[in-house]
Every structure is written in C-alpha cells, then in structure tokens.
Amino acid sequence: MEGLSRTNLVSDTFYGTRDDITEQFGIMWGQIKAPLIVPLLRISVFLCLVMSVMLFIERVYMFVVITLLKVFGTKPEKRYKWEPLKDDVELGNSSYPMVLVQIPMYNEKEVYQLSIGAACGLSWPSDRIIVQVLDDSTDPITKNLVEIECQRWASKGINIKYEVRDNRSGYKAGALKEGLKHSYVKQCDFVAIFDADFQPEPDFLWQTIPFLVHNHELSLVQARWKYVNADECLMTRMQEMSLDYHFSVEQEVGSSTHAFFGFNGTAGVWRIAAIDEAGGWKDRTTVEDMDLAVRASLKGWKFLFLGSVKVKNELPSTLKAYRYQQHRWSCGPANLFRKMCMEIIRNKKVSLWKKVHVIYSFFFVRKVVAHIVTFVFYVVVLPATVLVPEVEVPKWGAVYIPAIITLLNAVGTPRSLHLLVFWILFENVMSLHRTKATFIGLLEAGRVNEWIVTEKLGDALKLKSATKAFKKHRMRLGDRIHLLEFAAGAYLFFCGCYDIAFGTNHYFLYLFIQAFAFLIVGFGYVGTFVPNS
C-alpha cells in the first residue's frame, strides 16, 4: 500500500506539473497574442498578399505575351535577318567566321567523353573552328583521361586545345576568362560555350552563327536545353516542369520584348567583342553567366533566344546535387541584384523601360519575391492563421491567385499535368532552401560564394550509378537528413492537428499533405520515386 501511495503521489505530481506548465503557457500566449502576434501576423499577411499580386501580374503578363507570340508567329527569322552562310569561291573558308568552342570542366569523369565528342563533331569548316577544353580537375586520374581524350581527337585532325590552370581561382568564370587570353583566340569572332554534360547537335553552329553574322547588334544567341534523363525519377520530372516554363516562357518573352534575358551559362554563342566591351568574365558572384549578360545589356547589346535549337544535357538526379544547384541559382542572382542595382539605375545607354524590366521584373519579382512568397506565405504565414483565427486570409489570396499562377507555370510541360500536385508540394518544400539562399545572397552571408559543381552521372552509367547512389544513401542515412525540412514538417503537422482539434480555418488536409512532403524531402527520398508516365 505504501508503494502504491508513492506511485500515485509521483503520478499526481507529474500531471500537476504538466497542467501547471500548460496553464502558464496558455496565459503567456493570451498575453502576447492580441498586442503582438495578431498585428505582426496581419502585417505579414498583407505583405504576402502584395507579393502574391506582384507575382500574379508578372505571370499573367508573360502568359499574354507568349500567347500573342504563338498566335501571330513572330519567329526569330522575322525579327532578325537570317540567311544561311554560303561558300565564297574567291575567299574559300576564310569567308566563314572563326569560332571558338569552350568546354569548362571539373572532375567530369562520367561525361567528359560525351561533351568533347559532341564539340568535336560540330559541323563547321575545320580550319575555322577551335575546340578548347578548360580542365580544372583536381583528380589526377580524371585529368589524365581528359587529356588523352583530347589527344585522341587531335590525332583525327581536330583543332583541339587542352588547357589547365595552376589553381581554380574564379571557378568557371576564371577558367573561361583565362581561356580567352590565349594568343590563338585573338583570331576568333565568336565563342560557343558548353558545360561538360551538354551535347550539341552537329548543325548547332549553322543554326546560330548566321544570326550573329547578319545582325551586328546581337551579342548572344541562346539555345534551349533538352533533358536526356527527364524520365529517370519523379524529381527530374518536376525539374523538367520548372525549366520548361523558364525556357518556353521567361526566356522567349525576354528575347521577344526586350532582347534581354539571363544567359544560361551554356548552350549559347557569344560575340567575343561584346564580352570584351562588357568587361569580360567576373567571379564576384556564383552566376557569372547572368552577370555578363546584364553588363552586356547595359552596353546596348541585344540577345536572341532560339527555342527551336535544343542541346541535350543532364538534370541532377540526386537530391543532394539538386540542392547544391538550387542554392547557387538562388543565392547568386540575389547577390548580383545587390551588387548591380545602382549600376543599372545610373546607366544612360538603355531606356527607362528596360531598366524597370531588369530591376523589377527580371531581378526583384522572379529572383527574390518568387522564392520568398512561396515559403513565407504558404509554409509559414498561412499555417499560422490556424493558430491565430483572428487573422483571416481572403480566399482570392489563399486559393485563386496561387491556383492561377500554378496553372500558368504548368503550361510549359503538358505531358506532366498529372504530376501537378507533386510539383506544387515539391516547389513549396524547395522554397525553404531557395529562400535561405536568397537571403544569404542579399545579405552576403556565409555561403554566398559557395560553388559546388553539380554531380553528373552520364548516359551510359546512369542506371548503374543511380543504383549505387541509392544503396549508398541507404547505408548513410545521416548524410541525407535535412533538419530544416523536418522542422518545417513538424510545424505544419502541429498546425494541422490544431486545425482539426479546434476547427479554425479547415486547412488541415493541405497542412498534413505538405508536412508529409517536407518529411519525405527531409529523409532525402524524393529522388527515388519513378513516375509511371
């Protein structure tokens, strides 16, 4: 009886303490809720609605423009002069411009043969083209293999140069800059750039160079990407949806309306004189391609996007590789925006309308607002209104606007419409990572200049490598756990439980599904799911 009494006493003490803590927490919450939480949440809702409207207007504007382009068929050949280059009996091959093909690479053991082979297979007069392999590899085995491959093509009569540096200063920008300093480059008029996993078709130069030859105001011709592994897993299918919108809408609209868009860093041909006039390659951010494009545009140069010309490449097929890529793609533009905003405003060579387009539309809405509003509104603020029912979000802001934006984003990839829900959930999850990277870029914080080359598996080794990678992840569970995603998932799950318990806003279904998505990504499983079609 004495032991039982002690057990009851301990139990009563525990429950009494728990009740006291719960009661104290409830009192504290009640004291700060009305004077602090409610006003802050209302301000947050207002700001998120403003950003949502900004993004909505931007998406609708681009949809209208791309629709008009499709209806009236204003093709590049109609906007710019284009005619095929022809042989000159008197001048011979010297009538053709000299073209440099640059292939920057870093430890690209799986794909170096693909890119070098594709570049050496480009159709162009053999004495008017130079293939330049810029190898920054630190792995001696890979370095040796790349050099041997270059020697093999040289023995076949290809004018190929194998260039190495003593260090990786400036990363890709540094390699491209050093590549242009070689004496043999002085005779070149144009430079085509391909990353190590890109495989241009043999007629790539015949389709792009004539635009630059016949239109001296053009500095860049950008081709579209074609993904060789889009069907590899669910994650690559969702990447395809996002990138298809970028190319088929954003790049096309920018090219048609302002003759400006961000260079994608590969699968493009530059006029070397434009690169020199813009100040050359700079390594001040991790988006050296966008940096050069903005500076060239401020000098008055125009760009052309050719959606009909496609270059095969590989999408990241592991979550780790994709996260590194997205960090660079989100942090870099935000950091460049910080560095170039005043320079754009002070520029006197371009029109006010183009300045507004570059600062507001290109940078602020697409590179900053789009990331922040996705995470803050749909992952933080909207769930928080469940805990604070005094703050309401209008239906047009919570449902209609995001639904329309989502549908407009999905038009680029009709074959994946049945995966739209998965894409929404995945984009919301990745918005946490992108928002963090955006703030790092804006504030120039710790990882602002982090450059990690995106892992590539190659066509031939894709299945084998993916299987090995999956087994490796299974053995090293700790390496793929992402705590921030877990925290967000737990927060959403808690809000969902609260919504069920108190029936406030009835968002519980969305909250539970989104929480589940965060937990899946937190475990690193998203890249292993393969879609049925």
UniProtKB/TrEMBL annotation:
Gene3D superfamilies, per the entry: Spore Coat Polysaccharide Biosynthesis Protein SpsA, Chain A
Domain Glycosyltransferase 2-like: 191-383
Record's keyword annotation contains Cell wall biogenesis/degradation: yes
Broad class of enzyme this protein falls into: transferase
InterPro entries: Glyco_trans_2-like, Nucleotide-diphossugar_trans
PANTHER family in UniProt: GLUCOMANNAN 4-BETA-MANNOSYLTRANSFERASE 9
Name of the protein: glucomannan 4-beta-mannosyltransferase
Natural source organism: Solanum stoloniferum
